[in-house]
Every structure is written in C-alpha cells, then in structure tokens.
Amino acid sequence: MTRALAVDKCNKAGDVYGKMLVLTFEDNEDAMMNRILSFINTRDEITQMSDLNNHLLNFKGILIDEVQRVIIRENQEIDLTYTEFEILKLLAKHPGIVFSKEQIYDIVWKESYSGDYNIVMSHIRNIREKIEDNPSKPIYIQTVWGVGYRFNKNLIA
User: Where is the OmpR/PhoB-type domain (predicted)?
Assistant: First the structure.
C-alpha cells in the first residue's frame, strides 16, 4: 500500500525531469522521515546546481552577473547603485520587452508610485553614463518614445 508519493523531475545536467519517492505502510516513521529529507536535500542540491548557470546575462560588450551583482564591460567592473543594478537587470533579463516608467518603478521599488516618474529617468540616465560609450546615443538601454525603455535584443551574445 502506498502512503505517500512524490514526483520530481531532473536530468544529469540539473534540469528537472524525473525522480520519485514512494512511502509505504511498512515504513516506520523514522525511515519515512529519513527518505523524505533525503529526497528534499537531493532536490535542493540539483536546483542549486542548475541555478548556477542561469545567473549570467551575456551581451555584446557587457556581462551581468546577478549573483555577485557585478557588471563587466570591456574587462572593467562597473559600479552601479543597488537601484541602478536592479533596473539594468530587469531590462537585460527581458531584452526587447518595453517597460514603462511606471512598470519599472513598481517592479524595482516593489510598490506603486503615484507621483513623478523622473526618478526612473534619472536612474536610466545614470546607468547609461556608466555603461554606454556615448550616453546620448545609447545602444544598450533604448528609449521607446512615449512608451518606456527596453534592453537592445540585438546585443544578445
């Protein structure tokens, strides 16, 4: 008889695709608990290993490491504030997708804002000054007039 069944899926590369835990009435509580904990720990290790490869955003001329919160451009580390990094990461994780100033504010600041969105424009300007060769003619963060901003999808490495 089956008491509990848990299914998880993962391959050798860490991508999730298949694992099963079956507990029966014959198992005592200690044996069941040990099997459950073993199942959970293995799953967490696989998830952590697969996440290690997904934290780098690589574009022509710029590398964004989400885990270490580092920006590398032309072999030089670029210092961004917390908010600048969050805005750049948001746009870079969704190249080609246009975000309005309101959306950027709501996502990065994690709250609705009903005032002046010039704060977003100011941060975008600061980011451009730090990552662009010519901030007045940006190639990474593009302005979509009357709509918002997007990361240039043509720069995906």
Answer: 54-153
